[in-house]
Amino acid sequence: NEVVGDVDELYAMLQKGNTKSLLKKHLTQERFDLLKDKKTSIGGTLAQCINSGCKNMHSGVGLYACDPEAYEVFKELFDPLIMDYHKITKVEHPTPDFGDMDKLGFDDLDPAGEFIVSTRVRVGRSHAGFPFPPGADEQKRRDMEDKTIKALEHLDGDLKGEYFSLEKMTKEDEKQLIEDHFLFKDDDKCLRSACGYNDWPIGRGIYFSKDKKFLTWINEEDHLRFISMQKGGDLATVWKRLVTAVKTLEKNLNFAKSNRHGYLTFCPTNLGTTCRASVHIKVPKLAKAARETEGSGSRLDEVCEKFNLQPRGIHGEHTESVGGVYDISNKRRMGLTEFDAITEMKNGIVEIMKIEKELEIMSLEELWKKLKNGESNSLLKKHLTEPIYNKLKDKVTYLKGTLADCIRSGCNNLDSGCGIYACDAEAYDVFSDVLFPVIKDYHKVDEVKHPNPDFGDIKNLGFGDLDPSKKYIISTRVRVGRSLAGYPFPPTATLKDRMEMEARDKDAFETLKGELKGTYYPLYGMNRATQLQLTEDHFLFNDSDRFLREASGFDDWPVGRGIFHNPQKTFLVWVNEEDHLRFISMQMGGDLAAVYTRLVTAVQAMEKSGLKFAHHHKLGYLTFCPTNLGTTLRASVHIRIPKLSTNPEFKAFCDRFNLQARGIHGEHTESVGGVYDISNKRRLGLTEIEAVQEMRKGVEAVIAEERKL
Ligand code: ADP
Ligand code: ADP
Ligand code: MG
Question: What ipTM does this complex have?
Fold first, then answer.
């Protein structure tokens, strides 16, 4: 059982902790001093309310009520937090109103069954006079269970069902019920530290009707959760069923309620209507399309914000979406009636389906028209001429990739530089009429050819640290990309492909030894904060590149993606970002020799690990983007060059040395404070060691020039 900490110690932890929680924001020293010694009439304390939030820095909210009275006894803390979360200016709530069942204004939201997989509405209720989890004990939990079972016996007709105690249920039954989205589980860390799982599984259980369309959860997070759900999009039927059940049960149970807060729940985010109406809805296109307004993220997030909806993964709060299916529900629960909440949800979902329809994958012909009639400086526009388009338009690769898969991103992003990706390895041959001219143009070669791999003699490189003064180079990184032979690239890869590749990669990582030994961290299930930090520190990729997004690079995100690295984070592997694999060697400072040597050792070890990499006699190692072909090698420094970079000759200087300058947060980002990412530009038609030497000479010239200016 969770032991609640000492109130002063908890507060010290919170003050020290790095968290964006609402608890930290609103529990000021002044409020803490005012409340720390107060108690509710059944002995509830501030420590019980904040225990979880002080111990879990990843909490979004961080505050629970120890019992129904806490909302008044500790109101100096609860009120501002509630107003903040529910976006209201006063803690007040209207009288319950479920609407007129004969004039709801909606019925089935998706009669054709195109988008909505299932619909669910739940409300939470608490027994008046009983404590919430921190103050409850075995006896109280059993009392609540008994009381509820008796009340449930009054349900009849389709609502009639049976109660199953978690104490008596077999593990297999429990697992199946969870899998099918009927039953709760005890895996929420925040709820655990809020005492939510104390005495587990005593007093917990589930009631459901024969058809499993009406359910009651007993003593999960709330004393009671009433749930109505079914397959498909018939929101009206789901809603009417819930309302009938709640109205019947009200006659036999006394629910905790307050004039200011509406129905009282354990977590302040559920107060008021306590109503969460959700659909599991398949909207892969919306999830993939980039925001129309500034900033990263998807159109789906944007639309959800606009309609007060909340997207979740399909296995409940704090999980990720799988296969383009999301759990989308109303976000607001307080300060509006039940009927308003369900109507708000209905309006948002209707809009979401409309947009998803509009985004129906554009046919190749439409993409072509967009490109032909649009203004674009891309290599795609330049080289996909009418005759070549006509020659290629009906071709298909063995893995079923089409020209549309290759050019979708470039046609929908006319500001692309390149504009064309390969849908799979074979595309380089099937669509060579457009890809080869693009490749020649980008890599500035007259003929498409590439030497055999040659990493040079790593014992005799002839260079070492490029900046012993440590004044210019901040860090050095070398990466190469590899594709797994036989697997499609992002536009045609399926969820299954991604998972299979990840499993193979994981086996291969196990074979690494010495300095290269490390751990694989899948993105699926990785805490969002950890993810952001790794990206910020330049170790991890993210899903914000709109060119890659449009090329299906983030489909099924984050399943099948991950990062492997050694403890020092000097050797890293990206799994299923843009390429199937990216091997990266990096460290602080300018020691290119050390970084390159580590990379070469790693590539050789991975070649022995059993993975087979796609390779082409004319193109070298095959990558998703034609700009990376050949050596696939990008050797870069983050370098401080405030003078050279503001000189009008900067671009010409880089061109002269075949260098490319990027912002320090990756491709398509801006530079910050005179620091640039400078790397070799050429990857095709020269060997690995030649590419690195070219970068080495260029960076030396950059430093010499910066010194001069
Ligand atoms: P709540 O806030 O209602 O407790 P959770 O996000 O914790 O919601 O999810 C509880 C369970 O309900 C999960 O198993 C989830 O998959 C399931 N669920 C939620 N919405 C739906 C829906 N529309 N259809 C099917 N199952 C759903
Ligand atoms: P790539 O083409 O290798 O994928 P990106 O431009 O997308 O490169 O950058 C990937 C990540 O690598 C970014 O977070 C970027 O900041 C980081 N990065 C690139 N070069 C360096 C370097 N020399 N030192 C530290 N981080 C780097
Ligand atoms: Mg929940």
Answer: 0.63
